[in-house]
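From the pipeline queue, job 12 of 40. The input is one protein chain; the requested action is below.

Action: predict structure.
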Amino acid sequence: MQASRPRFLLLLALLAGLAGCAARAPSIADVKYNPGRYYDRSVRVEGVVTSAWSIPLVPVRLCRVDDGTGELTVVSRRGHVPGRGARVRVTGRLGEVGVFGGRAVGLHLEEERLTVLRW
């Protein structure tokens, strides 16, 4: 009986670790209203592309992602930006252009990874 106790504790620790990894990604509303909590950290958001822009010969592409709680601008320096209506999962670092009057201006997500999801 004593030999099964360490296995049980190991299994319990493994399950606790997996539960922590499965933590839900923050909503865009939470990211926008609490930017200091996520600033310069890797954040994952999932939603629908509402608009996308790119300029020929300029290496920066932009899109707006809406998860139903708000919209957030995503800045991409590689590849192409998915078109309007695409469902995406974006992981990136949260940044801002500046802070004026205690409010973040130019809040955006610098894309590290973008995945187009199937409906």
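Job complete. The CA atoms of residues 32 and 114 lie 20 Å apart.
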